[in-house]
Write the structure tokens for this entry.
Amino acid sequence: ADKTWRFGSEAPREPTRSSCANDDLLTHTFRALMQAHFPSITSEHRPTAVRIGRTKHKAARRQSSRFVPTMALDSTIDPISFAPDEALTKLSNLMTQGVKYPQLRAVVVSWLAEVREPSTLVAACIDVIFTTLRDQYEIGREEDDDGELLICMYLLLECLGRTPGTREGRERRRFTSTVTRGVVLCDRSRAHVGKLVHSAMTTTNDVIPSRAIVRLIETFGLEFEDLNFTSCAAAAEGVSGFVRQLLEDGKQSSAMALIFHFNLEEFATNETLQGLAQCNEFSLALEFVQLEPTLAKNWIEFCVHQGVHEHHHAALRQAHKVVTIFEMEAEFPDVRTQYYKSTIARMIAKGQFEVALKRAGAEINLQEFVVESLAAIEQFEYALEFANRCGLEFDCDPVELEKLVARRRATFFQLPEHLSLDANVVFVDDAKSLHYISERYFANKKDIGIDTEWGAAVGEDADKEDTSQVATLQLASEDGVAILDLPVLVQSCPEALEATIGRMFQDDKVLKLGFAVQEDLRRLAKCHPASFGNVRNVADLQSLWKLAVSKARMTKETRDFPWATDEELSRYQPVGLSTMVAAVLGKPLDKTMRMSDWSKRPLTAQQRVYAALDAWTLVEAHRSLLASHADRYIALVDQVNKSYEFK
């Protein structure tokens, strides 16, 4: 508490600011100071993930988890003489050794269990950390620029919360509700941390990140009287001023945490919520409205206005959530429809036509909106099909529709005449059809195209769904295409699947052609390891194309290779299948159905055509490149050829 602990020194001194003028010099000075006080820690021994300086602490945790300690952990301490500089030195050494974060946490928990007053030690360590940070930086830090010292601080605070007997739960008011939050029992350590927080809040351009201040306040359970102001009223004014500054600086998360913690009712205004909306912090706004329901009506009206007039989908989602939570449907009867229409419009813009119709459900007004939206972007085929499916009237000039269909067929690559949905494009969902396509299309074939469609949900709830399920597996040869209903086959006839397709995938004599194929194979192996756990002789045409373009850049080839055009040589992003097909076969693929619902049965005609094309164009591109650039292409195939084994 008397600020006597420093790195390598026990002489009391006031914190001073570095006079460095730029980040490079600041970082150099900081490292020099650390090496002076920690001679055992050198740049050669310090892993990049935990270097002192401007490393993000979350990234450091992830990276440090890859390192394995090379020696037994020395976590022994003298509980009587154990001081902050010793604690921080030990932590730094352990991090330098690459000790994983969970192990570091266990070490700190054991320390706090041994010392007489854990919260006093933690407060003193944080004092050292704050002072050292101020000594090294003249200018403020970005909020995410958390170096090793702040990692230590977050670690100490987390472990303090896990230490029995250091905190107790106390009820505190949070706007219209009451919550229970932990409070450190030691008055002296709370006062010590209160002084640190006071200094950080009142120092202009301080270097302490706002979230570090918030974390301290929440962990120690500080109240206004703990903050070392002249009075509670002065403390409230100081905290409010700090919150206003955070809001102006765009640090809404830290500001709202302090508003919640100190119950700052002066911020329970529409202006605060609108500021959150401007920064897209709708989750914080929702939490705020739930704590202060009197704001709900005005907040819904604001969100609806933003959604309708500014086309702000997140605002409409927020309005729908608030209406649902507070059961205000009678007062706002149109909000749900407005939100669903916005959702449907976004799905259609992404090509998720089937999912858009699924979202419309049985509501006629939403079904009509789907059809109208499709017609507005000249997707008359889908508009007509969906209208018929839903029993809606849809007027479409048949002549114009025929012209549109012809235009699309002329624009995009199509299946050849011998491949149609009535012949040689087969949907496979039982053992009999499995054996049929194996003999009819793939027996004695030297190369096949493979592709999958995943059964993950798309749309608003896509992030909540399982994204690993393979819905269909497409296999193509020059004679035909098979679309396998993989979930059904795995469930009903796994032995037949292994004996036919599994055997073909393991055959070294059959070249499997894929595009960005590794993830497809991984998911197939997860779906049925016996059939797809070991896949031999695979050529990824995306990897091949990337290699070919790279070689063309280095050798400055002038020959008429499709990967050596000016357009391809200037491309530095991974090529897509449609782009490669256009370069090799002359026309791109129509990717309209890429985001449709592949788990729904039966598949539509458009889905089956799309699925067949993705697999068949791999075979056709392979044949075309063999015919026109055999020597160079075969060499590239050999270079990218791989076998995969998944366990």
The CA atoms of residues 99 and 309 lie 53 Å apart.
